[in-house]
Amino acid sequence: MTSTDQQPLGSPFSAASTARDITAGLDLSGTSAVVTGGYSGLGLETTRALAAAGARVLVPARRPDIARAALADVEGCEVAPMDLADLGSVRAAAARISGSLAKIDLLMAVAGVMATPERHVGPGCESQLAANHFGHFTLVCELYPLLAAAGSARVVVNSSAGHTLTDIRWHDPHFRTGYDKWLAYGQAKTANALFAVHLDALGRGDGVRAFALHPGKIITGLQREMTLQEQIDRGWVDEHGKVIGADFKTPAQGAATGLWAATSPLLDGLGGLYLEDCDIAGVSAPDAHMDEGGVRAYAIAQDAAARLWDLSVAATGATPIAR
């Protein structure tokens, strides 16, 4: 990734495009995909679109029974138990996937949590950073041999405009003092973006390219730990829970950018980039409102991405990826 790459390239798709718009006419027969969170919200739309195009899709799920019920009518799809906040569970899922697939062409890191109450998991990791970043980091590291085996794999990581809330809190990433659920969410989303930057730098020699993205504003299960009043106060929904924000996308539209990242030939030879609205995002000003779009420079900085990678290896004990 270079600074000149982080700018729109003129995609034929837009914020209004849907998952099926992206995959229309695509033949993904012979493609193996892993989609975390692939049984609800954006993940379900992603799984359905990939499977409809002929891909074999494996969905790691914290609630496997619910996932199987949601995906019962999706052909070419299977479920593996996995809790992103439990690294032992992530490693077990990776071992199971490795025993089921010979290669992984697409790994879509869609699952996540947002604005949760203060929790620490494992050896004291802040739970939003753990579930959104460390879990996916460990999964990708454990499955890296299968990504390399594909020869031209793509890893797509759902970040968010929420990354504009804060850079990595290097002095206190686990909020030992002064927990703020929105800063914790923002840090996790910055981590998602930086993860893609360094994964791409490490993986491009093996044909593994990585992208991060903002899917747009969508009401899904992601808001499950927010009260209705909080969502009303933010102007997202009315008192009945109905979406009222004019700039909100449907789940099908929210899944489109990830699918574009996974399949667009316009991104061949590129990687380590942050995307939005089915195109590459521009770099935003430090004081720009998150709704104005773009990516903060700190979320695509190569030195910060390398530093976060080292922190993540130390925190998770994940198998390092040789460059």
Description of the structure:
By secondary structure, the chain is an alpha/beta fold. Helix content is 37%, strand content 13%. It contains ten helices and ten strands. The strands form two sheets. Strands 3-2-1-4-7-8-9-10 form an eight-stranded mixed β-sheet, with helices on both faces. It has a two-stranded antiparallel sheet with strand order 5-6. The longest helix has 24 residues, at 127-150. It is globular and about 45 Å long. The model has no long low-confidence stretch (mean pLDDT 93).
Which key phrases capture this entry?
10 helices, alpha/beta, eight-stranded mixed β-sheet, about 35% helix, single chain, 10 strands, about 325 residues, two-stranded antiparallel sheet
